[in-house]
Amino acid sequence: MNANLQTPIDYLKGVGPNRADLLRSELGINTYQDLLNLFPNRYIDRTKYFKINELSQSNSEIQIIGKISNLKEVSQKKGKRLVANFIDETGSMELVWFRGQKWIKQQLKIGQDYVIFGRINMFNGTFSMAHPEMELLQEHEKHLRSAMQAIYPSTEKLSNKGISNRVIINLMQELFKECNGKFKETLPDALRQELKLIGKSSALFNIHFPKSTEMLSKAEIRLKFEELFYIQLQLLIKNLIHKSKIKGLTFEHVGEIFNEFYNTHLPFGLTNAQKRVLKEIRADLGSNAQMNRLLQGDVGSGKTIVALMSMLMAVDNGYQACLMAPTEILSVQHYNGLVEYCNKLNIRIELLTGSTKTSSRKEIFKNLENGDLNILIGTHALLEDKVKFKNLGLAIIDEQHRFGVAQRSKLWHKNEVPPHILVMTATPIPRTLAMSLYGDLDISVIDELPPGRQPVKTVHRFDNNRLKVFAFLKEEIKKGRQIYIVYPLINESEALDYKDLMDGYESVVREFPLPDYQISIVHGQMSASDKDYEMQRFIKGQTQIMVATTVIEVGVNVPNATVMVIESAERFGLSQLHQLRGRVGRGGDQSYCILMTSHKLSNDAKLRLQTMCKTNDGFEIAEVDLKLRGPGDLMGTQQSGVLNLKIANIVKDKQLLQLARHHAKKILTDDPALNNEQNKVILDTYRNLSKYKNIWNYIS
Ligand code: ADP
Ligand code: MG
Predict the structure, then answer these.
(1) Which atom of ligand 1 is nearest to the CA of 297?
(2) HSE of 138, CA atoms in CB hemisphere, 13 A
(3) pTM for this entry
(4) Domain 457-615 class?
(5) Which of 20, 205, 580, 630 could make an SS bond with 10 (beta carbons 3.0 to 4.6 A apart)?
(6) CATH assignment of 47-144, among 3.30.2010.10, 3.40.1280.10, 2.40.50.140, 3.30.540.10
(7) Residue from 301, 311, 539, 558 whose mutation best tests the ligand 1 pocket (most atoms within 8 A of CB)
(8) Structurally, what CATH architecture does the domain formed by 256-286+301-425 represent?
(9) Per-domain residue ranges for the chain?
């Protein structure tokens, strides 16, 4: 190597101060290294030239050799456009510029042979190309041609300022020249041989200047693997450091209360998945490191009982435990589900939410501090400073999507020694994403539903079939079943959504009249007590139909409800649809989900509906969701930084990610401090990465 890759980009031949500033601001290129890691979006065949009479609208980006025969400025509504007539021996077409005309006009040479490159459009019956990339033929012939020419990411500003793709290619060539085409290897030889990965220099050369499609694909695999490998390595090292630094509370034994519950009160046999997850949690709690675990399980997979049994382990060892849920309804439901067991076991459990009365609040605080209270269930109220535990041993957070990382750490600071943390989510995060996002959390998965559950049958119906749908609902009600009808109220303040809901409610009331039918309605504009009253009527079976907005999305448990009708289903996201569907199919009876839509459907909406009809598997649905929405959107913008990958793609390169994680893990297990000679390149690369990229910013 000659040039140091940390050299500022300003020093590269061909980069003046102006270009350096543009490269920095537009593409984030500060150094040689950054330019080297500017990977092409795609490649085009630059050995092929088209004739004008061969053009068709289906041509995407092509190149043509010809001359400019004349040039004129045409006035348009706003400003002017510059139009050139471009000819070859077979015909003529137009070249058009909307911006930077003055500069372009000065540059263009009428009558000389040019090679133009760009996208073909048809405009008023004439083929045209807007803002073509142009080069004089004699210049063009000096360049090396390759069947695959890289097309780099660009911005409007860059192309306006004359930094075309050609310029980037020239800079890249210059960079390779200064470095003699040799770059430091960043993966150990043994690993490369085992996985048949090509060397770094060859990979970089072929990604920028592919010799063949075969070499290009080898280059891609090598560079993607490397990128994923180092991300995984960083996450795993962070996890190791965490485990060695953060001492946890050690729960020495599985005790009497746990065993009594397991042997006497557990109303069903645990599924194998539940058993496995409990073992994983038990192992964490028994080690002397703090547990930091994510428990994923689809709706209805039985996370609550796992939570309870984990809390019993804490109580058995003389510690307190808490369970925090995102909404009042959910906390109440958890509390109601658990209080009976706790009474039988003679342990004390309380509920704390925003609406807990001051007097009981005081009582709770007192018993929490003196240790009389074993388990506390509640909402965000648990995070208040006034809530002081005597010795919190385990904190469980349900539905983690709604709590931020900051809140996680707030719980954590409630003790001198941090409590063990278990985060439960029913919105499955695709495994691949979880791996790259939560490398710092250990992951448990309940991938099995309790026996006897019949999968919910899902169908898609158009609005004009509503009468048939109503007839079906009547049959179900005749059988004694209950029904949800859900309307989108994406934004609670949106008047239009609210009107849809009320119109819908009225039509349901007309179709299902008193006294034969009783209907509940729940929406966000009602007071908490009204909501609760209506909800309770439905839970007790006093009403047969619940018309609601998405307030019921999370956690409500009415096993007798067998039909979920979702109105304007095209407006819901996949994970929301899946959550809603999870409200039915909770009892032994066959349940149904009916997705109602108009005929106007976007392609994405169609795919969402098809996916829902095809599968009940939350993980499969999450994968489709990820493909449709992209990882950043799925996880919220603040976390998408982790997925700011340069070359790998979290959706498409799943297998490579798994492979990378496997090998990173194996290497760290054998050599945690990366002291072995053969791992020296890893240690060096890793140090460089942490020095220059500061990955810690976005994963901690
Ligand atoms: P979720 O994972 O959605 O929180 P829950 O914990 O609410 O699921 O469980 C859903 C229902 O399944 C509850 O009624 C629960 O009692 C029941 N359940 C949980 N585990 C089992 C099991 N192993 N066998 C039978 N029923 C179970
Ligand atoms: Mg639950």
Answers:
(1) 2
(2) 1
(3) 0.65
(4) alpha beta
(5) 20
(6) 2.40.50.140
(7) 301
(8) 3-Layer(aba) Sandwich (3.40)
(9) 47-144, 256-286+301-425, 457-615
The tokens for 528 are 């908490």
> Distance, CA 305 to ligand 1 centroid (Å)?
7
Task: Decide: 132 and 159 in contact? Cβ < 8 Å.
Answer: no
Number of Cβ within 10 Å of residue 681's Cβ equals 18
| Torsion sign across C-alpha atoms 140, 142, 148, 152 | negative
Mean pLDDT by 10 residues, the chain (700 residues): 82 93 92 94 84 82 92 86 94 91 87 91 87 88 76 84 89 95 94 97 96 93 95 83 75 90 95 96 90 85 94 96 87 91 96 93 95 94 89 87 54 72 79 63 84 90 94 96 87 68 90 92 82 87 91 70 95 88 87 96 94 90 79 44 69 84 92 92 87 38
For residue 449, the CA-to-ligand 1 centroid distance in Å is 8
* Pocket of ligand 1 from Cβ distances under 6 Å: 268-271, 274, 297, 299-305, 426, 450
Nearest to 422 by CA among 397, 454, 459: 397
Identify the CA nearest to 330 among candidates 426, 447, 453, 450.
426
Q: Which two tokens stand for residue 429?
A: 């995060």
| Closest atom of ligand 1 relative to the 306 alpha carbon | 6
